[in-house]
Amino acid sequence: MEKGRLVVAAVSGGVDSSVAAALALEQGFEVVGVTLQLRPCHEEFEGRTCCGPDAVAVARSVCGGLGIRHYVLDVSEEFEREVLAGSWREYEAGRTPNPCVVCNKRMKFGKLLEWAEGIGAWGVVSGHYATIVQGSVPVLRRGVDRGKDQSYFLATLGKDVLSRLLMPLGSLHKVQVREKAAMMGLSSATRKDSQDACFVPQGGSFPEYLREHFRGVAVPGPIVHVDGAVLGEHKDARMFTTGQRKGLRLVYPRPLYVVSVDPVSGVVLVSDDPEDLLVREIETTADGAWATEPPVGSVECLVQTRYRQRAVPALVSPLAEGRVSIRFEEPVAGVSAGQLAVCYVGDDVFGAGTITATRSTAGQQV
Questions:
Q1: How far apart are CA 346 and CA 292, in angstroms?
Q2: Which is nearest to 294 in space by CA: 325, 338, 315?
Q3: Taking residues 338-356, what's their average pLDDT?
Q4: I need a labelling partner for 91 at 20 to 30 A (CA). Which of 8, 48, 99, 177 fits?
Q5: Candidate CATH numbers 2.40.10.350, 2.60.40.10, 3.30.465.10, 2.40.30.10; the one for domain 277-360
Q6: pLDDT in tens, 40-74
Q7: Distance CA 129, CA 152 (A)
Q8: Candidate list 51, 100, 198, 343, residue with the active-site label
């Protein structure tokens, strides 16, 4: 890509986005900084969110120090409609959403890229820990810092989007980013990383917050052991997720795990046998950036069904209507419908899809 071209840097006020903007400048690009305002500036979020008043002030300070223009782009209505409301619909259906995946696709690399196009910019600079290998077909690759790699959250981005992104932190470790920020004298150098701050007020639970926010009606019901014994009652089935262990508030001689959730009857099924959580096969949509769309024939991949999960060997096969079947070489525990399954060939993202169904080692489909 030609140096000197105009790019828009997503500047949240955190150290990662600040260093990414600074590196783009060092590489010879003309940079404009933009902070996405995802939430209204209510007191419950003030000082915590990546888009709150404090973060905006830090972002503006960083851009001032770099000598670049800074703007705030208010996408709070779109965030409310497309990310929060969509997540609540998933919880209502008994699934576990991944709001960060949707936010990246619709907000950070959707609305922001549209804004960039409006000012004639080539594309967007981001502080994500991932690498994009540009070419005739752009490839999303894991970042070198495996503890920070964020390719999982970016796996649904299409090739048209990837071809217009710059992610300079993909070749760096977090400690190197902190060091660079300090050497550059960036005001965000010692700022703590945000932890889902755009989604949950301090001390809150995401599904509980969404239920209250959208005035949802609770679905109470029994907590039932897989052997049929009723162990207790709960206030809302949608507040539980497959594989959950904490927060059951039950007295039992062994640890209990949530096996399944019925959002209609309110039954939360639990087990004290971890093997009841094992899943052999899953089915997904084909809504990611597949290398071939959809995959042609069966492909051996490494697959992640959660961000912090180790990728495991699996066979990926196309189904009718663009759906995809993923059969694990060894059973995987705690797989939840609504989450994202990301497929890798080596370090490269081969594709991704939202999990729509799981099949246990006993052959039971959920």
A1: 16
A2: 325
A3: 93
A4: 48
A5: 2.40.30.10
A6: 765 455 545 555 667 888 899 999 999 999 999 99
A7: 10
A8: 198
* Residue 280 banded pLDDT, cuts 50, 70, 90: very high
CATH number of 6-184: 3.40.50.620
Number of C-alpha atoms within 13 angstroms, CB side, residue 151? 32
Residue 266 has pLDDT above 90, yes or no: yes
Over residues 85-109, the pLDDT tens digits come to 999 999 999 999 999 999 999 999 9
Say how far apart CA 19 and CA 31 lie, in whole Å.
Answer: 12
Which DSSP symbol is given to 244? -
Mean pLDDT of the chain: 89
Q: How many residues are given for the chain?
A: 366
Q: Residue 320 has what DSSP assignment?
A: G
Query: CA-to-CA distance for 50 and 10, rounded, in angstroms?
Result: 11
The answer to whether residues 69 and 63 touch, using CB atoms and an 8 Å cutoff, is yes
Q: Of 50, 51, 103, 301, which is the active-site residue? A: 103
Structural domain boundaries in the chain: 6-184, 218-272, 277-360
Residue with tokens 């502080």: 127
SS3 content of the chain, % helix, strand, coil (to 5): 30, 25, 45
Segment 106-140, tens digit of pLDDT: 999 999 999 999 999 999 999 999 999 988 889 99
pTM of the predicted model as reported, rounded to 2 decimal places: 0.90
- Catalytic: 100? no
What's the CA gap between 256 and 269, in Å, rounded?
10
Active site residue 103: yes
**Which tokens go with 113?**
């890229």
Highest mean pLDDT among 4-8, 85-89, 158-162: 85-89
